[in-house]
């Protein structure tokens, strides 16, 4: 993967670039790059756009990471995905899982649901909103699973696990919990619950209070907590 496929200005955050240099130089990432180029050459639409594949990393450099929230795949509809898990662009209908996230945020901290689904304000405060797979083909959920992204994002989680600062891992659902199963619980806080999807939210997500629990722990560790309020205008 080349730098021109990271931020629109062509530069991956230098801290992440250094930490992940071995991954970018590895054969599996070269294979992933070739796969994506082949899909584009075949006329397939890939989401998010190339400049946003690594948006989560660019908005949340390693030394700023306080919280990690793991997703699985980008949204595969027009105009939705922009590189942050669970987040959609301004003006796009709020997805059902995010509706439930907002519902729990309201119950937990009394924060009214935002009228948009744009979560960049969280990312800029230190919430790494990382999907396991960073690209998808339009209209085809999970189309890019098993192509190499999972190995890359495993490496990202491993680097976060090794960071000097304490980090909260919010793991919603069995997939996220398995992916981060190697995280050291003696150094980091691991919060597990059901996934916020409408199919599972009532099986332990609603009422799990991840936002207040994360902030209480960060405060105990001497780290500024996250302001989970989202700006009304974006």
Automatic annotation (TrEMBL):
<comment type="function">
    <text>Excises uracil residues from the DNA which can arise as a result of misincorporation of dUMP residues by DNA polymerase or due to deamination of cytosine.</text>
</comment>
<protein>
    <recommendedName>
        <fullName>Uracil-DNA glycosylase</fullName>
        <ecNumber>3.2.2.27</ecNumber>
    </recommendedName>
</protein>
<dbReference type="InterPro" id="IPR018085">
    <property type="entry name" value="Ura-DNA_Glyclase_AS"/>
</dbReference>
<comment type="similarity">
    <text>Belongs to the uracil-DNA glycosylase (UDG) superfamily. UNG family.</text>
</comment>
<keyword id="KW-0234">DNA repair</keyword>
<feature type="domain" description="Uracil-DNA glycosylase-like">
    <location>
        <begin position="58"/>
        <end position="218"/>
    </location>
</feature>
<keyword id="KW-0326">Glycosidase</keyword>
<dbReference type="InterPro" id="IPR002043">
    <property type="entry name" value="UDG_fam1"/>
</dbReference>
<dbReference type="InterPro" id="IPR005122">
    <property type="entry name" value="Uracil-DNA_glycosylase-like"/>
</dbReference>
<feature type="active site" description="Proton acceptor">
    <location>
        <position position="73"/>
    </location>
</feature>
<dbReference type="InterPro" id="IPR036895">
    <property type="entry name" value="Uracil-DNA_glycosylase-like_sf"/>
</dbReference>
<keyword id="KW-0378">Hydrolase</keyword>
<dbReference type="GO" id="GO:0004844">
    <property type="term" value="F:uracil DNA N-glycosylase activity"/>
</dbReference>
<keyword id="KW-0227">DNA damage</keyword>
<dbReference type="Pfam" id="PF03167">
    <property type="entry name" value="UDG"/>
</dbReference>
<keyword id="KW-0963">Cytoplasm</keyword>
């Amino acid at each position: 993967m080349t730098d021109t496929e990271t931020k629109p200005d062509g530069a991956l955050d230098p801290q992440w670039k250094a930490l992940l240099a071995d991954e970018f130089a590895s054969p599996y990432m070269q294979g992933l790059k070739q796969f994506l180029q082949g899909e584009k050459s075949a006329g397939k639409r890939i989401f998010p756009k190339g400049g946003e594949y690594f948006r989560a990393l660019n908005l949340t450099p390693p030394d700023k990471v306080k919280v990690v929230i793991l997703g699985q795949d980008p949204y595969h509809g027009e105009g939705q995905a922009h590189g942050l898990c669970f987040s959609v662009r301004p003006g796009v209908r709020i997805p059902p899982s995010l509706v439930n996230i907002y519902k729990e945020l309201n119950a937990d901290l009394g924060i009214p649901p935002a009228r948009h689904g744009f979560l960049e304000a969280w990312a800029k405060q230190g919430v790494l909103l990382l999907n396991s797979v960073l690209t998808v083909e339009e209209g085809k959920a999970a189309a890019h699973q098993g192509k190499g992204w999972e190995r890359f994002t495993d490496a990202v989680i491993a680097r976060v696990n090794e960071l000097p600062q304490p980090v909260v891992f919010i793991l919603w659902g069995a997939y996220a919990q398995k992916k981060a199963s190697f995280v050291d619980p003696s150094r980091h806080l691991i919060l597990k619950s059901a996934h916020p999807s409408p199919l599972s939210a009532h099986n332990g997500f609603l009422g799990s209070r991840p936002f207040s629990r994360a902030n209480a722990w960060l405060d105990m560790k001497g780290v500024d907590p996250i302001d989970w309020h989202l700006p009304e205008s974006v």
